Amino acid sequence: MKIVLSYHAKKRLIERGIKLQEVEETIEIPDYTISKGNQKEAYKKITGKTLKVVYTEEDKYIKVITLIWK
Questions:
Q1: CA–CA distance, 59 with 9 (Å, rounded to integer)
Q2: CATH placement of domain 2-69
Q3: How many CB atoms lie within 10 A of CB 22?
């Protein structure tokens, strides 16, 4: 499914030095996920840090709301 970044998520991607590929891997092959209403949080350990990606699943795409290193 196509992944679309919100304006906020694009800013965080650049600010926090996160690669788009890391975001895609976290959504597609997470270590674990948590559902909170219509939002999901995907977590994946990458090079000693854990990436958290918050997103929603729309009809034809996944919309990333925000992302952060934990």
A1: 20
A2: 3.30.2310.20
A3: 19
Q: Where are the domains of the chain?
A: 2-69
12 backbone dihedrals φ, ψ, rounded to 5°: -65, -35
Candidates 44, 25, 47; CA nearest to 33 is: 44
Instruction: Please state the pTM of the whole predicted model.
Output: 0.94
pLDDT in tens, the chain (70 residues): 899 999 999 999 999 999 999 999 999 999 999 999 999 999 999 989 999 999 999 989 999 999 999 9
Task: Name the residue among 28, 67, 24 with its Cα closest to residue 49.
Answer: 67
